[in-house]
Amino acid sequence: MMAIIIFILILSLLIIVHEFGHFMAARISGVRVEQFSLGFGPQIFKKKKGDTEYSLSLIPLGGYVKMAGDSQAEYKGAPDEYLSKSCGSRFWIIFCGPFLNYLLGFLFFWSIFLIGYPTLTAKVGGLIDGYGAKIAGLQVADKIIAVEDKKIDLWEDLQRQIQERKTKDSVTVTVLRGNQELIFKIPIKDKVVDDQSGKKRALGIIGITPFDEIVEVKYGLFKSAYFSFRKVLNLTVLTYQGLWRLVSGKMSMRDSMTGPLGIYFITSNAAKLGLIALMHLIAILSVSLAIFNLLPLPILDGGHLFLLGLEKLRKKALGIKTEEIVNNVGFTLIISLAVFVTYNDIVRLYGDKLSKLISK
């Protein structure tokens, strides 16, 4: 039950922040907002304040901000209507939704780096037969303090330095054994794996596993901000690389996409790991929501931005009929995608159980 509550709260937070971005930008731009709604299905709360009706529906898997005159069919030419505003103002209104999701992700990553997060030290916990570390003479409990003269403290730093090494066949490693510093030249083996974007990549492996030694790492205000910005940027680049590989057919959609059901299971596992894991998940989901919304598909914010750019080039907006067709196509695409990812989640998470049930 607690996992369901946490899942609903996280989704609600992401949606509210996104829609508040549109709402805030619309109000600043002088656009009258008629509705601010969270969720869909039967309404369980409704209140009107000023020109805006605020509502909450039973199923919190979406939301919207309804602005006056935001379609050709409804537009009457009043100065407080959406379509009365310049392309620049409308761009700002559309973009502010994803932007606030980006900002939320950045703030959560920043908080994690400030508060501190647990991570493994660069201490050798085990040696794998046939790999360079054991052949070179490393021992369990050796603490690696440098790779190619670059200081190492954490396991994640060690992985990065070895995997991104300059030489192809070996790496020089400095270890602390007791009070003695020792230097080893360790042969490297390449292992081909799929990276986060689904691209095959050769990684350098020296054949060690981590010691069960965990430390808390935290940084100052500005360094945390830098690491947070870098994290958001890397996540954006990796996601778009993955999307390109998906579109070009180099990566399977079945293995790369998840929907609400999959997110619920991820949320449940993150909640068991504690606050930092949950904060990390919220940051990733918020940035991912921003990236998804900026895709140039009809109905999504990216689609609206694309049409806005088209309007700027053509010097006129789409006609009522064309706008209706575009919206219907976009709605069909989103519903189809939602059905696919839900089916995909069910097969991936419950496939074995369903197979056994059917075979009985």
Keywords, please?
360 residues, 2 domains, 4-stranded antiparallel beta sheet, two-stranded antiparallel ribbon, 12 strands, elongated
Radius of gyration, taken over Cα atoms and rounded to an integer in Å: 25 Å
Overall, the morphology is: elongated
> How many distinct helices?
10
Domains (count)? 2
Strand percent estimate = 15-25%
- Beta strands, count: 12
The average pLDDT is 82
Reconstruct the topology from this structure.
Layout: H1 2-28, E1 33-49, E2 52-67, H2 87-115, E3 117-120, E4 124-127, H3 132-136, E5 143-147, E6 150-151, H4 155-163, E7 170-177, E8 180-187, E9 189-194, E10 200-205, E11 208-210, E12 214-217, H5 221-247, H6 253-256, H7 260-273, H8 275-293, H9 301-314, H10 320-359
Antiparallel strand pairs: 1-2, 3-12, 4-11, 5-6, 5-7, 7-8, 9-10
